Structure formats: structure tokens, C-alpha cells
Amino acid sequence: MEGKRFEDIVRILIYVQLFLTSVCGAEYLDVRLVNGSNNASGRVEVSYNGTWGTVCDDGWDLNDANVVCKMLGFFDASSAPGMAAYGAGYGEIHLDEVDCTGSESSLEDCIKSEFGVHNCDHSEDAGVTCRGTMTVCLIFFNSTYRY
């Protein structure tokens, strides 16, 4: 009987971990929004090798924006503006030709070109406007918790 209870507890913990991962997103790639009017909008920037850089808007659409918003703990995106709608960035352009279906956990799962390979300038920086409640995800000892 105790073995069955232990198996049930382990099964529940696995379901909880899968749920939290799907809600909070995988921690593959750091992403932030810059120059927006609040924490739910702005130019999309990703960190690669310790340097923040922008994302080119070539092929950028609502599916891509939805993934960014989910990574940040929002429900989804209401818009995916391009053409540096939130101002032109500077420095590196890390991503181009991002092609998400909207179900991915991270932009890293949508990359069709290598980091830093692009045919853009900062007048083509991608942006997002997220909607829904922001979820705070904390990571303790390799486990993710949602508050």
C-alpha cells in the first residue's frame, strides 16, 4: 500500500512539474521587452553569450509574439509590431527569420538561422504587446514554481 501511495505522489509531482513548465515556459533563452510603455510591451531583446541583442522583424508575426509573451509569463500577445515600433535598438542583432507556430516554450525552438546571422538593421527590430496576467516564476533547486 505504501508503495502505491509513493507512486501516486511521484505521478502528481510529475504532472505539477509539467504544468508549471508549460505555464512558466522553458528557461532556454533570456528575453526582455525594452522601451515600451509598461512591462507588457516593447522591443524584443534576447541574451546570447552574455550580450543583449534585438530580433529582426523578417517574418515576425503574432505566433512569434505569443511565444515571447508566454516566456515572460503573460497569456498571449495582442500585437506583433515590426519596423522598430518601440524604437531602434543598438548593438547586436541576435535573431532573424524567427518562425514559431505559437506552441513553443522558447524562441530558441523557432530559430531558422544561426545566432547573429541576419540581413537586417535596427530599423527592423521586432516588438510585442502582451496581454493577460503576468505569472511570476521562481526557480529553486532546479524546480519551477508559479505564484
UniProtKB/TrEMBL annotation:
One GO CC term on file: membrane
Database matches in PROSITE patterns: SRCR_1, SRCR_2
Keywords recorded for this protein, A-Z: Disulfide bond, Glycoprotein, Signal
Disulfide bridges in this chain: C56-C120, C69-C130, C100-C110
Signal peptide positions (record): none
Domain of life of the organism encoding this protein: Eukaryota
Stored InterPro entries: SRCR, SRCR-like_dom_sf
Protein's recorded name: SRCR domain-containing protein
SMART domains: SR
